[in-house]
Amino acid sequence: MVFLDFEKPLETLFEQLEKIKQVGEQGDLDVTPMVKELENKIAITRKEIYANLSGWQKVQLSRHPERPYTLYYISQMCKRFNELHGDRHFGDDKAIVGGLANLDGQTVMILGHQKGTNTKMRQYRNFGMANPEGYRKALRLMKLAEKFGFPVITLIDTPGAFPGLEAEERGQAEAIARNIYEMMVLKVPVICVVIGEGASGGAIGIGVGDRVFMLENTWYSVISPESCSSILWHSWEHKETAAEALKLTAEDMFGFGLVDGIIKEPVGGAHTAPEEMAKILKKQLKKELAELSELSAEERVQQRILKFSSMGRFEQLPDSKLAKLTATADKK
Amino acid sequence: MGWFKRLKEGITTNTKNKKEVPDGLWNICPKCKTTLSVKQLEENFFKCTNCNYHFRIGSHDYYDLIFDNSKYTELFADIISVDILHFVDMKSYSDRLEESVKKTNLLDSMTVAYGKVDKKPLVIAAMDFNFIGGSMGSVMGEKIARGVDYAIEQKCPFMIISKSGGARMMESAFSLMQMAKTTAKLTQLSTAGLPYFSLMTDPTTGGVTASFAMIGDVHLAEPEALIGFAGPRVIRETIKKDLPEGFQTAEFLLEKGFIDLIVDRQSLKATLSDLLNYFVQKETTTQHPVAEPST
Ligand SMILES: [Zn+2]
């Protein structure tokens, strides 16, 4: 088990539990009551720690090395899954996976960012940072789904679109822009879920849906706390402050009306009970799919456009205040 | 409303919108170091007379260059930013806004204008890099949204002149969602059958490039403009190598197939006029067939 810095009290308790269990295995002593007591203590401590997580702590959780990734959720939720590869132009990006799946009898197109589970695989998956061909593969699969009327489910988990030389050559910006445009008018139901990191253009490049959800311990922001710290504070040291300032948690995002809902995680985070997490996610997806299938394609697209068109906070000045400032603009 | 109230007290005289090119008597070309007078620059479309470097200019400079007799109406000028997140880094967002308004005499990094180009109507939304790096926040998104609505109402083409470092971090996810918002509005423009021209100028990067700038019906760019998703510094740090000469320039993007044409500022108006002729004519033809069937 991997413990994060703020989980230290838990780590100590788990160590004690291990020791007592070992003693128990040696024979003579009945350790059952002590084990029970410790397990209780662990549950309580966990609840306390997780009741009040800071923005930065949630960022840490979203990156927990044992956190479930896209392919895990697919394997847990779907009876069958056939991965489909390639963008038909350049290649097959390993940082975005997708394919056709059977979700309790219903055919769906399910795709998402994929991170690796060990050092070798993390590199193979480019740490979940997609190149343009990843976004173009995603688009190809979504258009295929549209052609045959399959709902689209996207799972978002990326520290950002890959900022590499070749990514620029092949049009990273165009690929993301095109996806946003096409997802906005896709005729089939689209559900997006942030399952880990939701960083910037790399996230929204597969993040335009009728419903956009965030798992409880994830983040969604225009920039990672580290990069934000480096740009605005000119140092990497202010990532915790930046994480707070960016208001990037699921709670913040839901509060601002920028996502449609929060999906609860098991206490202690998705990685402590991944099977349960997958069950919770599946239940939510099925409920939303049922609701969205009641609407016509036109209604869904209209509502999607309206939802995203309404995002933003600004103020409109009364004319008098403005007159002074803009009097020059027209008369030149 | 806090930051604006404070600011209002300070605004007593009303000067013209400040130019991106400083109003000092002389300017030094950043590329070839030639010394140029303001007059020389103005007469040469704010380009270096020696090496043709395109100086960064403001939204109103573009309107002056593009619209007939430099006459146009600014639209939606009354929309201002709110510090919704109460964002504080080394200074507060409110202070940043206040300083930027004082410095530029603009209310945000985008203005929208309506005017005629060789008598053909056009709505232009253009950015001012002097205002927090031309960054995209809720105001930019809303101005583009209303600009699109206005173009649909007037049945006229729409254009965005980009000059931006990308998203405005101080508005976090609100800024990010402007990528989706502006794109959502552009789908409506498309449904209305109206053309959208995207002009990318130096610099056009980040969320601006990765949304509305790259989904134009026609992509224009100014010579040598820096255009990209990630900034050169970030890419250098990622690949730990120097970037090749000319990487991420307009010419590079043209070569890679992402730009339709590079336009010298001197011929920008003529090019736009051509485009408007093509697209507007097409619309007229579909509405009024040339030959009516006789009865
Ligand atoms: Zn020069």
Please describe the topology of this protein.
The complex is a heterodimer of chains A (332) and B (295).
Chain A: H1 8-26, H2 32-51, H3 55-62, H4 70-77, E1 80-83, E2 96-103, E3 106-113, H5 119-124, H6 132-148, E4 152-158, H7 165-169, H8 172-184, E5 190-199, H9 200-204, E6 211-215, E7 219-221, H10 225-232, H11 239-245, H12 250-255, E8 261-263, H13 274-293, H14 297-309, E9 314-316, H15 319-331
Parallel strand pairs in A: 3-4, 4-5, 5-6, 5-7, 6-8
Antiparallel strand pairs in A: 1-2, 2-3
Helix pairs in contact in A: 1-2, 4-13, 6-8, 10-11
Chain B: H1 2-10, E1 26-28, E2 35-37, H2 38-43, H3 59-66, E3 72-75, E4 79-81, H4 93-104, E5 110-117, E6 120-127, H5 138-154, E7 158-164, H6 172-191, E8 196-204, E9 218-221, H7 232-239, H8 250-256, E10 261-262, H9 268-287
Parallel strand pairs in B: 6-7, 7-8, 8-9, 9-10
Antiparallel strand pairs in B: 1-2, 3-5, 5-6
Helix pairs in contact in B: 1-4, 5-6
The complex binds zinc ion (ZN).
Share of helical residues of chain A: 40-55%
Distance between the termini of chain A: 69 Å
Spell out the CATH superfamily of the largest domain in chain A: 2-enoyl-CoA Hydratase, Chain A, domain 1
* Rg over alpha carbons of chain A: 23 Å
Heterogens: zinc ion
Oligomerization status of the protein chains: heterodimer
The biggest sheet of chain A amounts to: 8 strands, mixed
Number of helices of chain A: 15
Q: Largest sheet of chain B, described in full?
A: 7 strands, mixed
Per the CATH scheme, the topology name of the largest domain in chain A is 2-enoyl-CoA Hydratase, Chain A, domain 1
- Indicate the radius of gyration of chain B in whole angstroms: 20 Å
Helical content of chain B stands at: 25-40%
What is the molecular shape of chain B? globular
Question: Based on DSSP secondary structure assignment, what is the total number of beta strands of chain B?
Answer: 10
Structural class, from secondary structure content of chain B? Answer: alpha/beta
Chain-averaged pLDDT of chain B: 91
CATH architecture of the largest domain in chain A: Alpha-Beta Complex
In the sheet with the most strands of chain B, the strands line up as 3-5-6-7-8-9-10
